[in-house]
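Box 3.1 A note on notation
Throughout this textbook, protein chains are presented in two layers. The first layer is the amino acid sequence; the second is a token string describing backbone geometry. Keep the layers aligned when reading.
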Amino acid sequence: MTPQTIFMLVSIGLFAGLLSGFVGVGGGIIIVPALVFLLGLTQHQAQGTSLFVLMLPVVSFAVLNYWKSGNVKWEYGLVIAMTFIVGAFFGSKLSLKISPGLVQLLFGILMAYISFRMILSGYTSISSDES
């Protein structure tokens, strides 16, 4: 790896980690697009790499902070984690059967939809707070 690549990877990791701790996102929303657009990985390579990162205990300290402040619903998290495993297995099988370009398109549409919903929800919340 070149020093530039290492710098980019460190930057991606720090930014994804900051966002993960701040708003609970990072893997798919930051790491995947960054690996595709900044480092030239294919969609499938970026997804696999992002999942590898999630496999490691990278969020332990952020979870600890949220747990200490009473903001972790362990029972919800355990159910989601158990079913996430099944979903991830079948989702990865499906993704690898279709073209990376189609996966990228669907991922972008999903992110755009979620972004629109979050922006609208945040705007509505701010508007109601001011009244």
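Residues 3-130 form one domain. The helical segments are 3-23, 27-37, 43-55, 60-68, 74-97, 100-130.
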